[in-house]
Design brief:
The structure holds 2 protein chains of 2 kinds. Chain A contains 6 helices and no strands. By secondary structure, chain A is an all-alpha fold. Chain A starts with 17 loop residues before the first helix and ends with a helix. Classes of the chains: A mainly alpha, B mainly beta. Chains A and B meet through α3, α4, α5 and α6 of A and α1, β2, β4 and β6 of B.
């Protein structure tokens, strides 16, 4: 009868020949040489991929979900600015404020210097008013508001120019 | 979803609102209880008739804002004087008026009253400066000016 072959790992005789081991090591232990061009191409491809992933994240769903709220916030901010700054801008552009009804510094100050003393104050309006009362306001230069008549409307224009804070700030 | 809208709008409002009014008004700076008061503006010309006047009233106290201008004593200055409407809400105003009644006042004349609000802890301090006073011919005359606090009450 034939004796069975023992193939267990514990078999002390299960050793490769030294020559074979040496040949195998020589065959597979040699490092594969990677050309520099290939190496750089791999690195460049990796960078491109990373950049693409960042761009993709910006437009990801997480960001898209904030676009509508951000637009709403922008509209709200614009509304706040319009409501708070708008009326002041309109007033500073020369439109009369409520209760004013006058034209502040709409013309050079010299045009209102009725008494010719070098500055505009209530005495200019007073002089014009007295001239109108006495019927002595015939000089067309006294028609400071440029309408058809020299009347109390002209007096008011001069008086409002006299008390204008803008005019006072300039002087 | 709604929470995102609320957060975004609140953030925008917080960023925009503090800087939107570059011309900060006095009453928006100071804190404290809001009080209202008034003061009479008095011009004294002695024996000379007061035909016209122009003066400045201002306060350097934080939190003071002019809220209204009232006329003075009849018959010479019963109507509110001329003033720049942009002075309302600020701490400085120029007042001016002339007599057209034919019955000019003389001596100590209340020419106007100034109403104001204040938020400062201490009472508002005002200064008044007379720019010009004139008689009924428009000729400048010497005069003095004073202001007298009328009352003050909390809102």
């Amino acid at each position: 009868m034939k004796k069975p072959i023992d193939r267990t790992d514990e078999d002390a005789d299960l050793q490769l020949p030294r020559e074979l081991v040496a040949d195998l090591r020589a065959l597979y232990a040699r490092a594969a040489a990677v050309p520099p061009a290939v190496d750089e191409a791999i690195v460049a491809a990796a960078r491109d991929r990373a950049r693409d992933r960042r761009v993709a994240w910006i437009f990801s769903r997480r960001m898209v979900r904030w676009i509508a709220p951000a637009a709403a916030a922008g509209v709200a901010a614009a509304a706040v600015l319009l409501l708070s700054v708008g009326p002041r801008l309109v007033r500073e552009a020369g439109a009369p404020a409520s209760g004013g009804g006058g034209m502040f510094a709409a013309r050079p100050g010299d045009a209102y210097d009725i008494n010719g003393d070098g500055h505009v104050d209530i005495l200019d309006a007073y002089r014009l008013s007295r001239a109108i009362r006495r019927g002595e306001a015939a000089d067309p230069r006294l028609n400071v508001n440029g309408d058809e008549a020299i009347d109390d409307a002209d007096v008011r224009v001069v008086a409002l120019a006299a008390v204008s804070l803008k005019g006072a700030d300039r002087s | 979803m709604k929470r995102r809208y609320v957060l975004a709008i609140l953030a925008a409002a917080a960023v925009v609102e503090p800087g939107c009014d570059s011309g900060t008004r006095p009453e928006q700076v100071a804190s404290g209880p809001l009080r209202f008061g008034a003061m009479d503006v008095i011009v004294d010309t002695g024996a000379a008739p007061l035909g016209a006047y122009q003066l400045t009233v201002a306060s350097e106290t934080d939190g003071v804002a002019i809220v209204g201008i009232e006329g003075g004593d009849a018959p010479a200055f019963p109507e509110p004087p001329y003033f720049d409407p942009q002075a309302i809400g600020r701490n400085r105003v120029i007042l001016a008026a002339f007599d057209s009644s034919g019955a000019p006042a003389h001596g100590r004349v209340r020419v106007a009253s100034v109403h104001y609000s204040e938020r400062s802890d201490s009472p508002a301090q005002f200064q008044a400066a007379l720019q010009v006073a004139a008689d009924t011919t428009g000729t400048p005359i010497p005069a003095t000016i004073s202001i007298e606090r009328v009352n003050a009450h909390e809102d």
